[in-house]
Design goal:
By secondary structure, the chain is an alpha/beta fold. Helix content is about 35%, strand content about 15%. It has an 8-stranded mixed sheet with strand order 3-4-2-1-5-6-8-7, with helices on both faces. Helix 2 (about 15-25) crosses helix 4 (about 70-90) and helix 8 (about 210-220) packs parallel to helix 9 (about 235-245). The two termini are about 35 Å apart.
């Protein structure tokens, strides 16, 4: 706790800081039957204490009288939140356990239509159970290993882009980690996106740069790109277009699909060619997370100098 308290000197509003940290662990719960009444000292407009506080707040935090924060203070706040989350999760598997526990509680809505890409039509199935919309194609041990690393990285967790929505359950899973999940449901002709709370489902072809640029125009800068397709041709455009648009620092995750034959594994070939600079003349630093008895999971951490 002392390590977390040491971050507060960077900020002005400690209550918002604590709220945002707790939200990352799904511990920010609204209690509607409790009301707090604050008796603020020095809160009158004519009070000198209030005038001094206003001057300090506008000097450090506010960009205008509507309450909008300056870009500098927002970056400071988000960096402190990310650092606090990293300190909390450094000692064990508390964060992965919370993510998986929340995911396990998902139940599909009664009106879910199996003919449509969203919402998922089934509750979480056994791990590594296929690519259908009612299945999850990740291995649990691989995902836990990835979450241990991902949740400690100094990145914001606002928006993740999932480039292959063959399983709606994968989007639900990443929704336990990020505030917003943007997923691409592959189809030949683009269609209007499906908006459902924190989930945005864009329908079109990942091979169409015009379609991908349209997504970027609407969502802005993502914090994480999740590539979990097996097709080499479906990895190149999303990688380069979303990489260029990402907020820094950001992360790109490479998730293979267990059980894919070597000749069909476009992900392994793609990672290899990035590492040796065969695609753009740059030898990309892609870190491997080794998981015993399975293929590795990889990620690329991006910084402002990349």
């Amino acid at each position: 706790m002392q390590e977390i308290e040491s971050l507060l000197y960077k900020l002005l509003f400690s209550d918002i800081f604590i709220r945002d940290v707790m939200e990352k662990f799904s511990r920010n719960v609204r209690v509607t039957n409790v009301t707090f009444f604050h008796d603020w000292a020095g809160h009158g407009e004519a009070d000198q204490t209030r005038r001094d506080a206003n001057a300090h707040e506008f000097d450090m935090v506010f960009a205008d009288r509507d309450g909008n924060w300056t870009d500098n203070y927002r970056i400071r706040h988000e960096s402190a939140v990310a650092e606090a989350v990293a300190k909390i999760t450094a000692g064990g598997d508390i964060a992965p356990s919370i993510v998986l526990g929340n995911f396990a509680q998902f139940r599909p809505p009664e009106n879910a239509d199996p003919r449509k890409p969203w919402p998922p039509t089934a509750s979480p199935a056994p791990w590594c159970s296929g690519r259908a919309s009612s299945a999850l194609h990740y291995r649990k041990d691989e995902l836990i290993a990835l979450l241990r690393v991902l949740l400690r990285l100094p990145i914001a967790r606002h928006t993740a882009v999932l480039t292959s929505l063959r399983s709606g359950l994968a989007a639900i899973l990443w929704g336990q980690v990020f505030d917003q999940v943007v997923a691409i449901a592959e189809q030949a002709s683009p269609d209007e996106p499906i908006m459902d709370g924190k989930y945005s489902i864009y329908r079109g072809s990942v091979g169409s740069t015009r379609f991908l640029y349209g997504i970027i125009d609407r969502i802005g800068s993502p914090d994480c790109l999740i590539l979990d397709d097996t097709r080499y041709s479906s990895l190149i455009s999303p990688y380069y277009l979303f990489r260029k648009a990402m907020r820094m620092p950001g992360v790109i995750v490479f998730l293979g699909t267990p059980g894919v034959a070597a000749g069909e594994d476009g992900m392994t070939r793609f990672i290899h060619e990035l590492r040796i600079g065969a695609l753009d003349g740059i030898c990309h630093e892609i870190t491997e997370i080794a998981v015993p008895g399975s293929a590795s999971v990889c990620y690329e951490l991006l910084s402002a100098v990349d």
